[in-house]
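Please go through the sequence line and token line underneath and see whether the fold suits the sequence. See right below:
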Amino acid sequence: MSPAGRVDPYPTYEQLRAHGPVVQAGPVFYLVTGYAEADEILRDARFGVMDDDLRDQFMPGWRESPAVLSISRSMLRTNPPDHSRMRRLAAGAFTPRRINAMRDVIEAQADELVDGMLAAGRDGAPVDFMAGFAYPLPVGVICALLGVPAADRPLFRRWAADLTGVLEPETTPEELAVADRGAVELRDYFTELVRARRRAPGDDLTSALVQAHDGPDPAAADRTRAGADGARLSADELLANLIVLLVAGFETTTNLLGNGLVVLLEHPREAAALRAHPEFAPAYVEELLRYDSPVQLTSRMSTAPSRHGGLDLPAVSWLIVMLGAANRDPRRYPEPARFDPWRPQPHPLSFGAGPHYCLGAALARLEAQVAFPLLLRRLPGLALAGTPERRVRLTLRGYATLPVTVGDPAGAGADRGTPAGAAGATP
């Protein structure tokens, strides 16, 4: 939990792993580092996220925090049947057909952002990859899905960074105050957007969720819970889920793009193979997710006794499921500290598993599958320009700044595309 431990948690994961795949750290507190155990727990119906009753026990006064209150009303922090109802209402925007149809839009946006990096990095000037590409690409995609005006998109980076502090396993009063500020700003923004979509609905996810709140009977809009058909949202749920869909829609992908680019630049042979063979992108993205996961942990509460990792877990146990550690479990991945896009079927747990598996996982994967080959092809001289700065966060792992030089664009000057022999590399 120290700043150094958050910036590089992997040595601590290995220390924990030496004590077993599930480690007891307190009377009812456990840490899960094993892949098989993490996967089992995330899929086990006896484990859920912390509900209101448990929050009352572990976090007295949580209702006074706008950040905690907002997150608690979203699908991220609710259990069935409420979780199932909310997820079903949003799932239509993330079907495989709709995701695949977005490829051309993502490619066009990525090309425009590379043009911007080339303009900003002319004559060797450093460019911040996070601000110039890793943030605007996914925020543009999720905002288009939600129907957020393009002019408003720059607002969300700070608001989301503030709010997500509440997702850390330990939050200081100062960090909670910052998260509360972000939650209030996001709530105010989406309150206005909901009013606008109520006046003039569009073909976007916000309009669909507003309809799920209002329903056919306007008098039902103020009901606290869903109707008998289960297909309704309360007012708090509507705003909470819009906030979570926005924040989760770009925070994870932004971190994936930043983390992944550093790994590729540190492994030039593998980067050259991807440049020559963009069809390898799906395998590369899976290994990048495994190697340096943009989401490092999640938590679960047990509702019944169980046995995992050789330990008997009592009812009402609190588990931190360490996804980043599970993704480097040597029982699952030989030589886990080695970046190897040729691994067979990695299936990392970076997007979770079970009922809370990330709703936008396929979209995040597609954005990365488009972005990395395009960056390597159009910017063959792309290189780090100094030391990247990590965010001091554990749950959402990424960079605050990532300075790069863009070099000559593809086709300019000497051919610096694929090194000799790289084109023959085959995952």
In short: Residues 65-295+350-415 form a domain with the Cytochrome p450 fold (CATH 1.10.630.10).
